[in-house]
Amino acid sequence: MADLEVKDLKCHYNTDTSVVPAVDGISLSLEAGEIVGVIGESGSGKTTLGLSIMRLLDGLASVSGTIVYKGTDITHLPEPEIDRIRWKDIAIVFQNNLDILNPVMTVGKQVVEPLLKHEEIPVREAQARCADLFRTVGLDPVWMDAYPHQLSGGMRQRVLLAMALSCDPKLLILDEVTSALDAFTRKEIRDLLIDLQKKNGYSMILISHDLSFVSSLASRMIVLYAGRVVESGPTVDIINAPRHPYTRGLVHSTPDIFVYKDLWGIPGESASEDGHAGCPFSRRCTQPIEICRTSPPRLQSCGDGREVACHRGGIATLLRADAVHFRYPLPGRKTLHAVNGVDMDVCEGEVLAIVGQTASGKSTLAHILAGILRPESGEVRFMDGAVHSGNNGHRFGGIQIVFQDPFSSTSNRFTVLDAVREPFDINRIGTAAERLDMTREALKLVRLPPTDEFLGKYCGALSGGQRQRVALARAMIMKPRLLIADEITSALDVSTAANVLRLLKGLQNRRGFAMIYISHDLSLTLKIADRIAVMDAGRIIEIGNAHEVMLHPRDDRTKRLIGTRVGHCCHDHKPVGMAGRLQTRVSDCGDE
Amino acid sequence: MNERDGQAIIFRFVVTLLVILALNFILPHMMPGDPFSTMASDVQSEDVIVMTEAQREYYFQYYGLDRPLPEQFFSYLANLARGDLGQSIYYKMPVAGVILLHLPWTILIVLAATAISTVVGVVLGIISARNRNKGSDRLMMTGLIAFAEIPSFLLGIILLLIFCVHLRLFPLAGAVTPFAHYTGVLDQIGDIAHHAFLPVLTLSLAQLTGVYLLTRNTLITVSTKDYIRTARAKGLGDHIVWSRHALRNALLPVVTRTGFVIGMLMGGAVLVETVFNYPGIGLTLRNAVVARDYPLIQGILLVVAVSILLCNLLADRLYQKLDPRVVE
To answer: Ranges for the ABC transporter domain (chain A) (predicted)?
Structure first.
């Protein structure tokens, strides 16, 4: 039997003007000795969940649902009876702040207090226990006589931990214990928690927005958004392959997991009480459909002990390639097998990088995926139709491709207006005025001036960076669901390349379209890619999370590719006779 | 407290005192009239004996009132430095003597009123806060706030009319029964309490609402603090949570206020003592003002001001003892 069983818990805060559903139907169960992580942004209802398990919400909150602790329904226990369970059975380590401890009582007294109440032991013995607890959490017992304001944030957090452990609880709730701690202390507390759990067999609920901390402790995770569970399952699976777009956003925003990637948050604000009846995440989602705005999704099992609340069953596959082959005829009846049996998926809203040497078949693959080239065999499906029968390039929400060389992909003789508006002209979309408006919008999007003067400029008069952005605007004007960027920065100098790339990633992050980014430049790719596919001789030899591929490459050719990065300013090959001078330089560099 | 802070406090105290001294000196002199227009007449009686010009001049010279004001001020300061508060023109005895004669009565009713208003105010505040937004809380709030709007002298007059004139439960005037023969100390204390009862009640009621509101509101604020939730989480039980955690913190501002309350009551005593004809320094001050007895007015105002300053200082020191966050 589970230690703790929470069923359909709802906590609504009643303010003067509105009702805020902080927790909106959460169920969870906790086995004895299990560590469960509860993850979510601020305002997702995590803390309310912790407080309601301890029945600590004040009169302004209306609570429904049931909380069963070791077979006893504690939801409606009278206050004196719940007081017997509090701290003795269920204790909580509060999030540290200056007000969390009574400012006019020494911390020692505050730790001793519950001991006297629940264990009914003499004061002297309680004080000795308190000193032991202090040592356990790595605090000198002399601090027992200090007042809360005399302690640092980290010390206060330790006191809170010591306090929670004082009556040897069976279930420990930890609310954002690491948010006030530096990296060293955080690691120490984590190790301490693991030790304590092993020694005393506590069950723990770890409430935090710190994904890396939680994932290093919890065996199972629950992801909250706007007071609801959007995903739950084993920690490893959730971190490696999140199913909900929100979870993916969180994982991708965690620098400890994606060590190389630039930091991009989930766009938009956390859902507040805006009153629409659909999925609370739909406004920030990368793959909303009609039903998402009208009815909230239910949490449903998706196998392997995982659950996800999404009308689309989690992150949906946008494009799928199945056994795709393509050969170029060479002189002398030979053929070049440019794409040799590629299977791959691109999910909604993700950035997949295809990396490989020149002539490894990347661009050919890109052309096939975009529907420009027809594969000899195999199939590419976009959304629900085959790429080759659809008209994905000609409609809104389809596939657009931006090419490597902006000088040949945009005509010198076109004005900027002609170049960007071209897809509308070809596909006969909108009136002239609408086309102009949308052209200006698209230019703004790529940070080009939407002025008449600029619109009238000939592409031939633009710089490389500007021209590539014009090409990008031409693609963006069709509001693609999938953007294929084929070596778009390789013709640009480093600074321009960086600007274009950040612009592109920024657009992708805000708009939520999926992107296939093709490049031979591994370092650059790592800055933006969620997943990396390594291509060699027409095959995808390795595909996985960007950091996984980078840190633990499996294929030898991938290892070689990673090893080819020239990188650093500090080299250790010294020219003869210059050793002394160079040595100091090297150490200068090394110290940075 | 370190030495520099100590010095700073003393410096502030001295500056405040000097400002008060200057005001004390200037304000009485700005009143129309002078001590001799009413000198020969009894303050209480209606007949006014007008002095001749020569007599007035003589008295002006005698009391040094003919000298320029700055000169008078400096000689006042000089005398004060020697501990001499001057001679009362009206009572024709040393000001210090007059004050010593009446001050104990004022101290008695002020301290009693402070104690009563603080204790009752805190208790009512606790009851109100614990029943927040319930009927009893709303009733008490509305009642006490409305009550606080009644000026204390009016309240005094009403009490006087009901309890002294109609019900004849309490004496109309004085601090003790004149020419009484006490059978023992208890008897004497009983008599004093009997006389002091209504003045103390009036003063207490005047201050009650302030203490009540402060206690109630601080307690409500404190009860939303995270450390109260922490205490509740520890399963300590309602009683300990309220007494040890909430009240202890909520009473801190009440302590500061008590020093302030004593000051307010010293001022309030003037009106209340006049209404009840209670022989404290409030009544004496009123008489001194009517008689334009400059030295006595200055003396009493000084005593009142210094006691207010001392009370505030004391409250500050006490606060430092109670709140560890205040750096000693």
So the answer is: 4-251, 319-562
Query: DSSP state, A42?
Result: T
On the CB side of A269, how many CA atoms lie within 13 Å of its CA?
5
Cα dihedral sign for B6, B14, B258, B260? negative
Number of H helices, E strands in chain B: 12, 0
Do residues A340 and A333 make contact, with C-beta atoms less than 8 angstroms apart?
Answer: no
Contact B324 A97 (CB under 8 A): no
CATH code for the domain of B206 = 1.10.3720.10
Length of chain A, in residues: 592
Amino acid at A74: I
A484 and chain B in contact, CB less than 8 A: no
Determine how β-strand A90-93 pairs with β-strand A171-175.
parallel
Is B34 inside a domain boundary?
no
pLDDT score, position A566: 56
Cα-based distances in Å from A199 to A1, A126, A166, A295: 22, 21, 15, 46
At A422, list the tokens: 């071209």
Domain total of chain B: 1
**Is pLDDT above 50 for A565?**
yes
Residue B148 falls within a domain, yes or no? yes
Residue B202 tokens read as 């009036």
Which of A54, A99, A105 lies closest to B233 in CB terms? A54
Boundaries of domain holding B125: 95-322
In this predicted structure, the answer to whether residue A572 has a pLDDT above a threshold of 70 is no
Give the strand pairing for A317-330 and A334-347. antiparallel
DSSP H or E segment with residue A509: helix A494-511
Alpha helices in B165-247 (DSSP H): 185-223, 226-233, 238-240
Listed by number, the residues of chain A in 28-87 with a beta carbon closer than 8 Å to a beta carbon of chain B are: 51, 54, 56, 58, 79-80, 82-87
In Å, how far is B222's CA from the nearest CA of chain A?
A: 10
- How far away is chain A from the Cα of B259, in angstroms, using its nearest Cα? 21
Residue A104 and residue B323 in contact, taking contact as beta carbons nearer than 8 Å: yes
The fraction of chain A above a pLDDT of 70, given in percent, is 93
Within-domain flag for B145: yes
Retrieve residue B180's tokens: 């009484």
Domains of chain A: 1-89+205-315 (3.40.50.300), 316-398+483-567 (3.40.50.300), 412-477 (no CATH)
A579-587 LR contacts (CB < 8 Å, sep 24+): none
Nearest Cα to Cα of residue A159 among A113, A117, A197: A113
Residue A396: left (phi > 0), alpha (psi -120 to 50), or beta?
Answer: beta
Residue B51 lies in a domain: no
Which among B235, B248, B249 is the nearest to A87, CB-wise? B235
Going A36 to A40 to A46 to A47, the CA torsion angle's sign is positive
**Residue A581, pLDDT score:** 45
